[in-house]
Amino acid sequence: MEVVSFMNMKGGVGKTTLAVNVAFTLAAVHEKRVLMVDVDPQFNATQYLVQDDRYLSHISDNSKGTIRDVFVPRSLGAVNTTTGLAKPQNKAKMDLSACILTIYDGAKPGFARGGKGRLDLLPSTLDLVEIQTSPRKTEDKLKHYLKEKAAHYDYVILDCPPTISIFTEAAILASDKYVVPMRPDPLSVLGLPLLERYIHDYTADAGQKLEQIGIIFSLVRTPTPTAMKNIMNDLRKARKSAVFESMSTLSTHVAESVEYHRPMIYFNKASSKVKEQYLKITAEFLKRAEK
Ligand SMILES: Nc1ncnc2c1ncn2[C@@H]1O[C@H](COP(=O)(O)OP(=O)(O)O)[C@@H](O)[C@H]1O
Ligand SMILES: [Mg+2]
Hints:
Layout lengths: L1 E5 L8 H14 L4 E6 L5 H6 L2 H8 L7 H5 L29 E5 L12 E5 L18 H9 L5 E5 L6 H9 L2 E6 L3 H21 L4 E7 L8 H14 L13 H7 L12 H18 L2
Parallel strand pairs: 1-5, 1-6, 2-4, 2-5, 6-7
Antiparallel strand pairs: 3-4
The structure holds adenosine-5'-diphosphate and magnesium ion.
């Protein structure tokens, strides 16, 4: 099992779109067993992958959990009417199978490609924000939970929020590697050393080694304006192999694919050129991650 975070301190740089599409393509094309963990209270990855009614019935079912239950034990269970004692229900120890939604299962008939690939989602919720004020050590819980409950996956992909918070800290501590989705504009490039220094400082304190898989350019305009090209070329020169060769360009179909809860490779309206980009990015991700 390898845990990989998609991380950038800036929002709107394509983190969620890349994380979801890479996770799905790993499962559907490369036959990997993948767990996508939505660590962002904005739950965009969850919204991308799950239809609203399915999500609503999941979160309103008391026997089901979300990422929130990894961080905080659920409130006391029902009071026993004879003893008067409340039975604590520690959902942090709740089994992962009660918290996930299966998004893709190649072993089930009806899935286009067959095979043993699988994508499960550990969804997020809006009320995750309440955890910001949780006691210390909450940030360790995701790491322990995944070690204990998710060892049977090939990859665990974490979609992170853009701000420094208990969730980014939890994701860093839980991760073996990380990817930096980046929009090639001057301000986003400025954020890169800040992110790297933050990760370096944070992991050094924890005695952890967190390897950067690479930087993926996203939301690249086509045709690409010269200024944007220069930014990309400069970063490639400075960072050499750290920058992915493959990238994702702007496509009007991304927003629609979110609405339809379809990853790009299965979204009929997406051009074959755009589908090809996500196939290439995922293949390159795999090559780098397995190195
Ligand atoms: N390749 C793309 N083409 C067009 N729109 C995109 C593309 N990638 C992402 N978007 C859109 O840009 C916005 C930000 O992307 P998102 O993946 O949510 O970024 P982040 O997670 O970094 O905030 C979203 O509305 C998303 O649908
Ligand atoms: Mg996001």
